[in-house]
């Protein structure tokens, strides 16, 4: 398959180094504001609240695209597999949910919220994880305390919480893209960093996703020698028909012409992943991350479906399902595979069960 050219909304730091340099003063001011905030938390001027059960955070230093959602699912599953009696709760912000009614997405047995109330990522996680309660809310301290009064939870997992310092974490797992690393090392809007790169040292361990066999040099330069580094990569776990929900063998898609559609922070990763299925990607329509699909957007997708089957992500499909014209849609379920996983879960076990 020839390399598909993807036209996406390019962030300023990838447009040109000159533009990134011009924005560097703004990035420096933003980074210093984050430094001051971190300093006030370190001094306990800003209060950090600790839940009565262990908390594991999964986050990153850069904006989007490191695979937090599949990693959250994998860690919850992996922990439950090794500790079957544990009652797990997962707390997410619920980014871009359009209705702020309720806070319990799933009670562990059934999904209690629709996509508009939960947002896309909590919906995907809730559908995958039976036995884990899922919650949303911008104030994760409040949500965590409420969750513990309603459910007999033993462990809390926080999705995208590295910068959410109001809630104490026993383990801070920092995800880093194995291909992009920390980008140009600059802070928003001149680079992809949410805070200065030196704050990587605040993590308990690093998890390098999209691992290609070598670690980015800017990570090795910053990472303390004693900090554990784990690696993982993404792979397709299953493919299913959107309209029927029927799982299909990946071999059936080999050499089939499809049109790719996704609204993620890293569309190149999605294209690369589905390319490994052997499909012929004849075109691609990208949307921004967490995109709220309008009627016009859905008509645009339906037009492509009339000519080619469309292949997309679960995160997008949860916003489309039920659309009467969407009969030829293949949905790809992505899974994180942690390399040396027993070493990783032994590491988690030691920290969680030695909580001070």
Question: What do these coordinates show?
Answer:
With 356 residues, the protein is of the alpha/beta class. It has 2 domains: 195 residues, Rossmann fold (3-Layer(aba) Sandwich), CATH 3.40.50; 100 residues, Rossmann fold. It contains 11 helices and 13 strands. Strands 1, 2, 3, 4, 5, 6, 7, 8, 9, 10, 11, 12 and 13 form a 13-stranded mixed β-sheet that branches. The protein is globular and about 60 Å long. The model has no long low-confidence stretch (mean pLDDT 91).
Nutshell version of this structure?
With 356 residues, the chain is of the alpha/beta class. 32% of the residues lie in helices and 22% in strands. Strands 1, 2, 3, 4, 5, 6, 7, 8, 9, 10, 11, 12 and 13 form a 13-stranded mixed beta sheet that branches.
Main sheet makeup: 13 strands, mixed
Q: What is the top-level CATH class of the largest domain?
A: Alpha Beta
Structural class: alpha/beta
Multimeric organization: single chain
User: Judging by the overall fold, what is the CATH architecture of the largest domain?
Assistant: 3-Layer(aba) Sandwich
CATH topology of the largest domain: the name is: Rossmann fold
């Amino acid at each position: 398959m020839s390399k598909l050219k993807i036209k996406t909304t390019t962030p300023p730091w990838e447009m040109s180094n000159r533009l990134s340099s011009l924005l560097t003063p703004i990035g420096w001011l933003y980074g210093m504001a984050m430094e001051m905030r971190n300093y006030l938390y370190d001094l306990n001027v800003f209060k950090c609240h600790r839940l009565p059960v262990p908390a594991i955070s999964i986050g990153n230093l850069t904006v989007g695209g490191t695979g937090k959602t599949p990693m959250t699912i994998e860690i919850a599953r992996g922990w439950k597999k090794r500790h079957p009696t544990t009652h797990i709760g997962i707390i997410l912000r619920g980014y871009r949910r359009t209705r702020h009614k309720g806070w319990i997405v799933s009670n562990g047995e059934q999904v209690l919220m629709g996509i508009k109330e939960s947002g896309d990522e909590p919906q995907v996680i809730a559908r995958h994880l039976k036995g884990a309660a899922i919650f949303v809310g911008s104030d994760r301290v409040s949500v965590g305390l409420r969750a513990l009064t309603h459910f007999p939870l033993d462990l809390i997992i926080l999705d995208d919480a590295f910068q959410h310092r109001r809630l104490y974490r026993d383990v801070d797992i920092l995800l880093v893209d194995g291909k992009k690393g920390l980008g140009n090392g600059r802070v928003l809007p001149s680079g992809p960093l949410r805070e200065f790169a030196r704050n990587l040292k605040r993590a308990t361990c690093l998890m390098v996703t999209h691992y290609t066999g070598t670690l980015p040099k800017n990570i090795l330069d910053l990472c303390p020698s004693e900090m554990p580094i784990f690696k993982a990569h993404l792979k397709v776990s299953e493919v299913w028909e959107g309209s029927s929900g029927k799982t299909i063998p990946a071999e059936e898609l080999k050499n089939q012409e499809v049109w790719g559609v996704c609204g993620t922070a890293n569309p190149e990763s999605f294209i690369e992943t589905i390319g490994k299925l052997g499909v012929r990607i004849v075109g691609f329509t990208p949307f921004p991350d967490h995109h709220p699909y309008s009627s016009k957007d859905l008509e645009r997708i339906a037009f492509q479906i009339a000519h080619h089957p469309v292949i997309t992500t679960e995160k997008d499909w949860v916003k489309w399902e039920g659309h009467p014209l969407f009969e030829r849609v293949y949905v790809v379920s992505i899974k994180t595979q942690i390399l040396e996983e027993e070493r990783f879960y032994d590491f988690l076990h030691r920290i969680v069960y030695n909580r001070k």
